[in-house]
């Protein structure tokens, strides 16, 4: 597949961008970050903090590199309607089945984090909370041998938020995003029993 797969970063319009100044300000005021700043200032001096915070800010955007196809496949794997494709008598391993999914909602939460190290020791972990809700339309799953082998077409629309501690950093209603034509999942993602 030549089309790049969309990520959460794409949905928030942050592809190729740094954290906006208002987001940086909110991150820096978060309690955990304030205590990290105090440790760095006390231990390493005031010239180190601006560079350290710049890296924390960059990483906060990089944490949004969450592949949407992975999020969706993970949700679909919990869909009870797929379990029938585990029956090898009705659906032998050599048989491929196209499974259309009607319009449905997927909710997903993620807690990526940045670890801050001083002298090769973790001194803090800054946790972000990413919450997503999508309406998904027009998706076909190719199922074979009890696995989702590929995802064909479809589109998503939804909303999401990113928080650092209780500070709301980003909130976005996502425009409709067309998923890339076909996403090959290689050996496939097993449907759990």
Helical element count?
Answer: 5
Structural class: alpha+beta
Strand content: 35-45%
Mean pLDDT: 90
Q: What's the structural domain tally?
A: 1
What about the largest sheet?
A: 5 strands, antiparallel
Q: Specify the helix fraction band.
A: 25-40%
Unreliable stretches (pLDDT < 50, length at least 5) are none
Cα-atom radius of gyration: 21 Å
The best one-word shape is elongated
Order of secondary-structure elements: HHHHHEEEEEEEEE
* Distance linking N and C termini: 29 Å
How would you describe this structure to a colleague?
The chain is of the alpha+beta class and about 190 residues long. The chain has one domain (about 10-190). Helices cover about 25% and strands about 40% of the residues. It is built from five helices and nine strands, in the order H-H-H-H-H-E-E-E-E-E-E-E-E-E. The protein has helices spanning about 10, 20-30, 30-45, 50-60, 70-75; strands at about 95-100, 105-110, 115-120, 120-135, 140-145, 145-150, 155-165, 165-180, 180-190. The strands form two sheets. Strands 2, 3, 4, 7 and 8 form a five-stranded antiparallel sheet that branches. Strand 3 (about 115-120) and strand 4 (about 120-135) form a beta hairpin. The protein is elongated, with a radius of gyration of 21 Å. The model has no long low-confidence stretch (mean pLDDT about 90).
């Amino acid at each position: 597949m030549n089309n790049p797969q969309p990520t959460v970063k794409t949905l928030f319009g942050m592809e190729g961008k740094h954290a906006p100044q208002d987001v940086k300000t909110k991150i820096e005021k978060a309690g955990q970050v304030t205590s990290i700043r105090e440790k760095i200032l006390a231990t390493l001096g005031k010239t180190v903090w601006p560079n350290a915070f710049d890296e924390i800010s960059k990483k906060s955007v990089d944490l949004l590199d969450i592949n949407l196809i992975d999020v969706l496949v993970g949700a679909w794997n919990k869909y009870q309607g797929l379990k029938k494709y585990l029956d090898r008598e009705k659906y032998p391993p050599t048989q491929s089945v196209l499974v259309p999914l009607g319009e449905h909602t997927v909710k997903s939460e993620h807690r990526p984090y940045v670890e801050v190290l001083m002298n090769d020791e973790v001194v803090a972990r800054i946790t972000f909370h990413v919450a997503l809700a999508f309406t998904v339309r027009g998706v076909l799953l190719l199922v074979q041998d009890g696995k989702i082998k590929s995802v064909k077409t479809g589109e998503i629309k939804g909303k999401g938020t990113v928080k650092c501690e209780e500070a709301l950093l980003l909130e976005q209603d996502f425009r409709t995003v067309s998923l890339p034509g076909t996403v090959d999942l290689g050996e496939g993602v097993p449907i759990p029993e």
